[in-house]
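Data availability excerpt. The first of two example chains:
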Amino acid sequence: MKKSLGLIEYKSIAKGIEATDEMLKAANVELILSTPICPGKYISLIGGDVGAVKTAVRVGRDIGSIFTVDDFVIPNVHPQVFPALTATADISKIISLGVIETMSAVASVMAGDIAVKAANIELLEIRLARGLGGKGFVVITGEISSVKSAVQACENQLMETGQIVSAVVIAAPHKDLIPKVL
């Protein structure tokens, strides 16, 4: 089981690929995602033990140099984050919906982890910057009070950094909305 998650965003696709290769060579980590994102950026997500992930992220940041946009290590990542990154979470029972829009892919993953740790919610999806102009967003569900608490926690922790674009809570979303959003 992955205990931590490392994320790095680059403003160069070529440099992102090179840095990701060096990260994998530097430490015993698992590559979860490594892909170009809009607008011409590259993101890599790795998982593993905290020490290995920190080492790999440091190497990736150093290799990326001036092309590194953002990086972060979540030491004790919540287990719901991994299926949300691949949009494989169960969406059979949507009570209310929370959507947190962020300025970057890295901030989206951070917001997802913050939300699921802050309240009793289900993390449905963390969408990372594909077709979003470099932004990302998180979709959560649960009881309305829990969703509000999770969204508020994200706003409290990320608003001062300028990473939150917008956040909404929708009580009892229309059934036709869910399959189109997720």
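And the second chain:
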Amino acid sequence: MAKKEDNISLIDTFSDFKENKKIDKTTMISVLEESFRSVIAKIVGTDENYDVIVNPDQGDFEIWRNREVVADGDVTDENMQISLTEARKTDESYEIGEEVTDKVHFESFGRRAILNLRQTLASKILELEKDSLYNKYIERVGMIVSAEVYQIWKKEILLVDDEGNELILPKSEQIPRDFFRKGESVRAVVARVDNKNNNPKIILSRTSPLFLERLFELEVPEINDGLITIKKVARIPGERAKVAVESYDDRIDPVGACVGVKGSRIHGIVRELCNENIDVINYTSNIQLFIQRSLSPATISSIRLNEEEHKAEIFLQPDEVSLAIGKGGLNIKLASMLTEYTIDVFRELDETEGEDIYLDEFSDEIEGWVIDAIKGLGLTTAKAVLEVPRNRLIEDADLEEETVDEVLSILKSEFEEDEN
């Protein structure tokens, strides 16, 4: 016979399951019935002659056993059969062959059955919670969520949503200048949901271009309404981003709508992204014009396209080169990401300065990767390289002193030969 505390324990287990907000009512009833039947089958061998009725609204359950009435002395299975004499103790009208239904108190199966039920339910609850978590967040991939910082580690941050679900924000998905404290609310986009061994892991991101896109949707009603579309996004998290937008209504200026009056709309996005600079440009299917706009604020003199190889050679006045390259090469890098074209910037030669030579002309004497490293500084001609301090070539282009000296020697000798 089960003890009173076992019965209380059973009621508590049922109540805990009933109060679980993550599991819907229909699923809860089904799982409870299945769990009771599973335990009954383990204890008595079968659950076929049992009816389990779960009353979630009342917070209780009933178990009924059906047995066939047989003649006294013919009982071979007490779980499936009941003698005529025993049956008539309940109701004198019972006859052989009829079915007797009597209520069974689950506690009567003993403490082992109750412990078994608790373990079964705990396992089912955990499994259902995992399924519920996976289904909830797999539908939210690419959407912004808000969660509270719970634990901060070196490689990731653990956050919890308003239902207590755990979410992960890896260090690699954080903006370099991000700094969070425990208890602080964080916004991020759901990057993916891993489900290895039925153990869902929700990965968030603040560096994804999608995060920037979703922030624009929140701040700019015209995007949310479908009047303006974000065509492309290129982003170097925490530093700079370029967003190409297009309007389906000629009366709407897409760039102006995204920026807002005196920057009112874009300022909130910039703050969220740790002061990341955002350039909003008009999208166009004309690739030559699109490349030109993507290199803003630089003014381009001419463009030579190779559409097959997705390459573009850009020619600019000398004072425009640094604008096209941008600080640390960010502007040209983002333009390449946005247009999906490899962009090479060239300084237009000024005949009044005397003859100059493009660095590419020295490819038979200087290795290609060295030329590319120097061009990354916006230096595309021999004279442009010779005019900058030697230390800048070493430090900013990240080249060895011997390599720089060799390059300078080759370039100088070219002009010395011309003079001779």
